[in-house]
Amino acid sequence: MKDSIFILDKSGRLQELEETDFLSESALQSILAEYPNLISGKQIHPEKPRKWLFISREFGVPDDKNKGNRWSLDHLFIDQEGIPTLIEVKRSTDTRIRREVIGQILDYAANAVSYWKIEDVIHLYEQTCEKEKLDPIDRLETFMEGEFEIDEFWESVKTNLRAGKIRMLIVADGILNEQMSPAEILGVEIKQFKSEDIRTLVPRVIGKTIHASDRKTTSTRKAEAWSQDSFLEALKEKVSPLAVQRFYEIHNWAEEKCTRIFWGSGKRGSMIPIVFSKGIKHQLFAIWTDGSVEIYFQYYKGKPPFDQEEKRIELLEKMNTIKGVRISKDKIDKRPNFSIEKLSNQEEFRKFLSIYNWFFEQI
Q1: In the beta sheet, which residues pair with residue 201?
Q2: Which of 180, 150, 155 is nearest to 167 (CA)?
Q3: What is d(CA 262, CA 359) in angstroms, rounded to the nearest whole number?
Q4: pTM of this prediction?
Q5: 209 and 239, same domain (yes or no)
Q6: Both 46 and 77 in a single domain?
Q7: pLDDT tens, 321-343?
């Protein structure tokens, strides 16, 4: 027997919404991709509700490192702690929801842990952003709310994958069997209620016991917000006084030339000069508290004119004129780094700043 819910509007009119089936699994998949909050993060973790970063639909899963994808996962999300969340969507009319689906998603999980590469996850995330006409960096920074640096976030995803720390969700418009393992697999029931002009979606997490809900996670890292002072204090422990002086000079240059400076949060501090040009946000490079200077080719490639490979090669060749810096051409889509000590010499330091003055001219 189908359920009903009732809505009392401001005029005192009572409307009855009757439970209705989704027309197809694809319809349920689409609404989940558009409205990920339907995966009720509060029910999964009441003390620290889960947030969801949508990575991709139809994420391929191989069963051998030397072969192509054997299966296709309906959705991949990642939560704010970098935990990959694998989602299979089924309608309650599909009888496999009672038998095969748990085995299927366990197969997906086992092979994802073994064969997924973090580079593939990042690539598909960027493709999704491109389709939705969103900036992948801005979207990720908004999602993280300062809790992680971008690099740290992807590193945590990589670590969780290697450790097999993943979450599996079966999402359906009705789940009859609640005997799921709360440690590994959860069911999310999303019921739909409709009247002529109103549609209501009601999510419910199934398979999470009171014990599991009350258990506190001790591994959650509290982010440390960095500032110029705390960054300098940490940097002085890692590099020479001359290299610290070069950092001061780069910082002063960035304050004059750039829109803002982002200091980040987490175990390592980073100084990232950011400039907006023609409505586009550019992250120039990062200097980390360990003294490494990271060149952001991975982020340049998504924004003109450095979306052209020849422009990134031109920039790379300019970087290689700095004594002691040798960046290979296979790094033009990545984030190569070198020690800030390489800029101790005044002439090499001036080359570095001149390269980014040229960068400004290009954008």
Answers
A1: 192
A2: 180
A3: 19
A4: 0.52
A5: no
A6: yes
A7: 999 999 999 999 999 999 999 99
